[in-house]
Amino acid sequence: MDHNGPRPGVDRSRILIADDHPLFRLALVHILDAPSDLEVVGEATNGREAVELCHRLRPDVVLMDVNLPVMDGLEATREIKGQFADASVLMLSGYADHRILLEAVKAGAEGYILKRCHPNYMLDSVRRILGGGTPLDQELAMQLIRDLAGGHVQQQDDEVSDVHSEPSRRPPLLSQPLTNRELEVLRLLAQGRTNREIARELLVSVGTVKAYVQRIIVKLEVSDRTQAAVKATLLGILSG
């Protein structure tokens, strides 16, 4: 469903909603179309329709339900990210399952939040994506970090890997490589340690840890410490 064109004289970010529940779509339109900086330009009831509307409407952000008919949200996200480099996807889910979060990140989604979140958090998440951030449900992100760090996720991928695939599994080079000390801080951060606990472990001040954490966030191009831990774990930076 296409919405009306943009309001005259107002530069607004374009939002596409993909969800098969009419009442939830109506609620999202009410939340997201009211602010002066956002505009809901269309609604899709299934994943295939979401891809097609992206062709016509070229949204800045797609709010994508995980479970959609015809084509599910993960597959639709993969298609959208493959065809529209400028479109960001914020995945919405009713399930508190960190394994789905992992699949969403692998599909190319820039964010993953739960449907039960507060409307203000929904708005903030959309704006964070527009600003280059990666909003993630914090509890699910920490569960994912623990599973990835413990090797409990996608063990089958490791079992079928052989020596010829090893080079592709090495941690990718960052534009700004992490120092040994930053890697130490990052590993402790991924274990859920607080700045104070990290400071005690490394025998440095809390202020020094905060400075390290900020440098890590900048180098990994994320917006907070949890996202830094998730991204580092997914990229294999914490392995070995």
Kindly summarize this structure in a few lines.
It contains 12 helices and 5 strands. It has 240 residues and is an alpha/beta fold. A 5-stranded parallel β-sheet has the order 2-1-3-4-5, with helices on both faces.
Structure description:
By secondary structure, the protein is of the alpha/beta class. It folds into two domains: 13-136, 3-Layer(aba) Sandwich (Rossmann fold), CATH 3.40.50.2300; 142-234, Orthogonal Bundle (Arc Repressor Mutant, subunit A). It is 51% helix and 12% strand. It has twelve helices and five strands. A five-stranded parallel β-sheet has the order 2-1-3-4-5, sandwiched between helices. α4 (98-107) links the parallel β4 (88-93) and β5 (111-114). The protein is elongated, with a radius of gyration of 19 Å.
- How many discrete domains? 2
Number of helices: 12
Question: Strand count, sense and closure of the main sheet?
Answer: 5 strands, parallel
How many β-strand stretches? 5
Strand order of the largest sheet: 2-1-3-4-5
Structural class: alpha/beta
Q: In the CATH hierarchy, what is the class of the largest domain?
A: Alpha Beta
The general outline is elongated
As for the CATH topology of the largest domain, it is Rossmann fold
What is the strand content?
5-15%
Question: Which helices and strands appear, and what pairs or packs with what?
Answer:
Blueprint lengths: L12 E6 L3 H11 L5 E7 L2 H11 L3 E5 L7 H11 L4 E6 L4 H10 L3 E4 L4 H12 L7 H13 L4 H6 L5 H4 L10 H11 L4 H8 L3 H15 L4 H10 L6
Annotation keywords:
Arc Repressor Mutant, subunit A, 12 helices, Rossmann fold, 5 strands, alpha/beta
